[in-house]
Amino acid sequence: PPPPGGIPPPPGGIPPPPGGIPLPPGVPLPPGVPLPPGGGPPNLPIGMGIPKVGSDSATDRGRKRLKPKVRMRRFHWEAIKGKAKNKESFWNDVDDFKVEIPQEEMEVMFAVKKKKPKKKKKKKTKTGKEEAKVATKVKLLETRRAYNVNIVLARQRASNEVIKQAILELDEHFLDSERVSQLLTICPTEEEVDLIRGYLDTGGKQHSLDTAEAYFFAVGSIPRVKNRLDILEFKQGFGSSLDSITSTISVITQGVNQVKESKAFKEILQTILAYGNFLNYGTSKGGCRGFSLSTLDRIASTKSNDNKTSLLQFIVSKAHANDSRILKLSDELSMCSQIAKLDLDKIQSQIQEISKILVKVKKELDASKKSRSRFRLFSSREVTDEFTNKIKPFYKTADDKIKNVKLTFERTNKDLQSLVKSFEEKNEDLRKHPPKLFETIANFVDSFSSAQKKHLQEQKNAERKRKAEEAKTKEKKARQRRRLARRESRVNANSKEAKGSTKVSLSGRRSPLSTGKRRSPTSPKLKRASEGTKQSPNSSMQHLEVKVMRTGRRRSNTYAMQLRMLEEAASS
Known about the structure:
Layout: E1 59-60, E2 63-64, H1 103-110, H2 128-134, H3 143-156, H4 160-169, H5 177-184, H6 190-201, H7 211-219, H8 225-261, H9 263-279, H10 311-322, H11 329-332, H12 336-340, H13 344-368, E3 374-376, E4 382-384, H14 387-422, H15 428-432, H16 434-499, H17 524-531, H18 537-550, H19 553-571
Antiparallel strand pairs: 1-2, 3-4
């Protein structure tokens, strides 16, 4: 029976398609495929399925895609395949078959280029020496470590064999202090030596080692090479270190003796004590039998009531006035400033450090007895180990010297402590650190020297001022004497000129002795003098003579002329 709602079949039914398989019920026909007559599905060949929308087949919707003739470059995109789940998808309305593809142009532009085969270069045959040079060196150390080792080795300008021989023989002519310090920075560790030996034990060749590795292999065969170089460096610097310690102890000894034996220091302390008890009379701090040496720092700050003079300057001035021995204080305590800069703990640590190194030297000497005494170099030449022969005598001498230095330092330290106790010092800091006591004394000596220089300078200035005032007074008196002498000489000259001058002409001519303004002979004064109406000629003459003696040359000429006229009037 026909399906409900379906198309009624033709009479006799639908004949099966030849070679075709009818679609199962419920499978819809693809869009665009027309129904055959009778409304049945088209007959499909066996093995052919219905192509999917968006499939990768050569055909799409019954249309063939254009196939390139050459291999093309790939276009890497993210492809969208399968059926569109969204009916409103943009790609539902896109049909790439409508696009005309310029096949020839694209094949030219986007085709994969064929690579040209490279021509093989003929390799040059190398000789054995060239192959040895080109052969890569084996590097087992870290890059930074190998770089530092190579730098130091380049400065030595010596082969590994020469350096090894010098270390075994302790050749101090070659291994000077500078070279030893450099070689100590590149001494191989046990791990580095084991690394190189492991490479050689596994079949590695010695000549293939790089520069740093070859050096480590050469010196690594020397037993405890770093200890040997340390001892050699200690041996080279032992003399200077011991001399430094010995000279320091000698300075302390001299300083202690100076303070104990200085009479100037004793006298100035006695003076300060007397002045201090005087200033503190009637107070709780008066009547003391001594004082702490830390008080010396306060003497320069104790001022007089006008704040112009300190107590220290007053003591210095009195010492100069009395020519006291105190003035030699700086000479008798010259070592105190040097002791003030010393550190006793540092000196003691230096002695202990030297003693520890000598213990290591003794252990290395004992260990070297068990080691072999001969070593073979790269040139198959054997070298004798001279470590024991050269270090053993040095150890005995150094050990004896350092023991003596220890005893001397202990004795000096005791003397220093006894000196501090002798001052009954209450300052705990000075008692625990004796060099600070010398620092206090040194500061006081410096202040005393400054006060002494200031006093001497003031004396020089006062003497210079006194001499200047004396010279000024002498010059003043000399100027007065010269002024009086010039005045007397002028008066004498005028009197002589007045007596020996000729008579003055009444015609009005100027007298040769006159230097002033021409005066008429008929002036009122001359007329009065000639007439003699009010006074006698003799009295007038005496009066004019006195004027001539007391006046200068210019006015005396006028009076002289008047005197001559009076003489003429009297004679007539």
